[in-house]
Amino acid sequence: MKTYKITVLALIFIANLTNCTSKGKPNKQGEILSAAALKALAIHQSMNGKLVTVDGYASFCGAFSSVTAGKKNKMGIYADGFCEGDKLIEAEIDFADNQTPLTGEEERNYAEVDKSFKNSTIKFMTDDYQEVANGKLKFSGTIDYDGSNYHLTNVTIHK
Length: 159
Known about the structure:
The chain is mostly beta strands. Helix content is 14%, strand content 40%. It is elongated. The model has no long low-confidence stretch (mean pLDDT 85).
């Protein structure tokens, strides 16, 4: 009987811990940049460090794409579909590591891939905690120049 009570108390304690996460406030979205404005980024660096938003399809293109769970991985954002149309920009997107936090803010703004590893099967957890299938989404982040290239960092995902 004593073991039973201890087990029940332990389960109640664990259940309370898992309920200690909270939802964060929505993140700000930056100015929406057109394809022409994104192409101009290669010419001048006036947008370095600015918060911007890009509408497009997140895609891995090429035969040797891979991701590391729990890390940021660069994905191309394309204008017209998965690897179709102009490549607008690359974005550093967090990938799920399948670990549930016990406390703090619930995870959001990440991608999840399944074993088939197809662009069409990637799922995203948006900034407002919606799980959505990969499609045309808004990717908001800070423009970061790394030499002659630029990409989005601190990316938030919006429907």
